[in-house]
Structure formats: C-alpha cells, structure tokens
Amino acid sequence: MSIWVGLIVASLIVWAIKNAGYVIPQRFVESALISRIALLVTVALLASLVVSQALHSGGSLAVDARVPAVAVAGILLYVRAPFLVVLLAAGAVAAALRFFGVMA
Amino acid sequence: MALAVSLYGVSFGALSVALGFSVGQTMVLSLLMFSGASQFAFIGIVASGGAAAVGAAIASAGLLGARNGLYALTMSPIVGRGFFRRVLAAHLTVDESTAVAIAQEGRQASQHGFWATAVSLYVGWNLSTLAGALAGDALGDVKTWGLDAIAAAAFLALLWPRLTSLEPIVVAVVAAAVTVVLIPTVPAGIPVLCAAGVGIVAGLYRHRVAPHRPEPGEAGAR
C-alpha cells in the first residue's frame, strides 16, 4: 500500500472514531469494560512506542544515545517537570552525546 | 501549554520530514488526523518498516485514536448543537481540549473552555508542524539534533500521567517487554500491535476479576 493511501486511510479512521462518539448515544457504550480497555490499550501502545522509538534500529535492537535521553526524560517526568522541559532535555542529551562522540 | 504543544508540533514536523515524509504528507497528518500520538505512531512505524508496515501503522494510529472516541462521548452534551458545529467539534476532540473542558465548572464554562482550547490548539499545532517540517529540510540528519530521542520522550510523557495505579503500570511493563522480545523477530509494526493486544487482554481479564473497581484513569489525563 502506498504511503499516501495509508496516510489518508489512517486519518479518516481517526476522524471517524472522533465523530462516532458524537453520534452514538452515550448509554450504548458507556461501560466500565470499554473505558478500561481504552485506557489500557492506550497505555500498552504508548509503552510499546517508547521502547521501539528508543531501541529499534533497522529491524533489531540497539542501545545508543536515545537510551540515556529517555532515562533523563523519565527522571524529569518523575519530578514533575513540564512537558516542554522533558522534550528539550531529551533532545539535548542525545544531541550532546552524539556531538561529543560518546554514543551513536 | 501553548509552548509545550508548539515544541511538540515542531518536533513532529521536523521528525516526519527527517524520516522521509514530504512536507505535504506531514501537513495532511496534522490537518486531517490531528491527534499527536497517532501521528507520531504512524510516521514511526512506516519509517521503520517501509511500505510493508503501512497496514500496521494504520491499525496503531486507529487504536491510539480510540480514546478520542471516549472523549467525544463526554464532550457530546457540552459542545453545543448544529451539524457543522458538532462535526468540527469532533475533529478537534483530543486530549488537551477535553482536559480543559472537563476542568471547568458548569456547562457554559466547559463549552467555552473546549472551543477556546480546541481552536487555538488546532491552529498552533498546524503552524508548528509546518515550521518544523520546513526546518526539518534544513536540519538534515534526524539524529544530529536528537529528534529521534525527542519522539521517544514524547511517547513517555504521554504515557506518564496514565500510570496512576498498579494496573496500568503492570500493563505498560508487560507491553514494553513484549515489544523488546518481538522487535528482532517479527516485521516492524507488528510488535506495537501485539502490545495493543496485551492491553485488550488485560482489560478483559481485569473486568472479569474486578468489574466494579473504580476507574484508574479519566478522560484527559494530560
């Protein structure tokens, strides 16, 4: 499938899901099960994306400057640093480690 | 919040272009998909797996967008009446606009909070995406500026506020472990979908064991 088709299809799906919430009567879907699954699927996907974005490298695992950067982000989140600070710090750590040739 | 969203948008735009997407493709994602986590997931999975991973990228973006549907249910009585108004509201129903709306006292304030946040977020998100995408062309290698690390940190920052009890923490750890095991063994994009399966199975199991436990997370955790 071409990237363009995938892009449009994915966008329309995300759009349709948002609209569905405004059309479907609340009582049909408002159950503890659905909101629990929605929360846990989101958590599972985000956790998986953290790991693959930090470790995936051409079909295998690689430990490079992304790992200390994400660790710093984790510490900053733990001390309740603002979103902006967390992102800037992660980028700065990875960029600095690469600039000084410490890690790939 | 505006500053944080702008940096997030700039990161998305720059990363997307650095990963090989055109400025046009990047803008279509921000204009049409308009859901940060889904957009990052889509470009990340396609970049790691190529055309073969497009199906997995669509599925992941859709699954990550599922929570917007729940936000929409919450926002439905709040945003006001009229077909176009509700279609527009649907498009703008994301983490931030929902969070601001439910934080207000009373329906009028909620409605105002939703629309004010939603419109400024949409404009800011797309302008910052465009700025990032244009800058991304000039930035060159995604790694030099740590944009790949910023993307990972962004997912962690989205995950963090949802880890409010043992249940989501356990699911996150298991999902992460499954991903690590699967990355070297199956095609790109599939590990993320298997992780989503972990979330579904955990939800079904917990519902059978403890159906009446209070919900650990509410809409708009961030």
Report on this structure.
The complex is a heterodimer of chains A (104) and B (222). With 104 residues, chain A is mainly alpha-helical. Chain A folds into two domains: 1-27; 28-99, no CATH class. Chain A contains five helices and two strands. Chain A has helices spanning 3-23, 26-29, 32-55, 66-78, 83-99, and strands spanning 56-57, 60-61. In chain A, strands 1-2 form a two-stranded antiparallel sheet. The longest helix of chain A is centred in the middle third of the chain and has 24 residues, at 32-55. Chain A starts with a helix and ends in a 5-residue tail after the last helix. The model of chain A has no long low-confidence stretch (mean pLDDT 92). Chain B is mainly α. Chain B has two domains: 2-161, no CATH class; 163-217, no CATH class. In chain B, helix 1 (2-18) runs parallel beside helix 3 (36-49), helix 1 packs parallel to helix 7 (107-139) and helix 1 crosses helix 8. Chain B starts with a helix and ends in a 13-residue tail after the last helix. Chains A and B meet through helix 1, helix 3, strand 2, helix 4 and helix 5 of A and helix 1, helix 2, helix 3, helix 4 and helix 5 of B.
Topology diagram in text:
The complex is a heterodimer of chains A (104) and B (222).
Chain A: H1 3-23, H2 26-29, H3 32-55, E1 56-57, E2 60-61, H4 66-78, H5 83-99
Antiparallel strand pairs in A: 1-2
Chain B: H1 2-18, H2 23-33, H3 36-49, H4 54-75, H5 83-91, H6 95-102, H7 107-139, H8 147-159, H9 166-182, H10 190-209
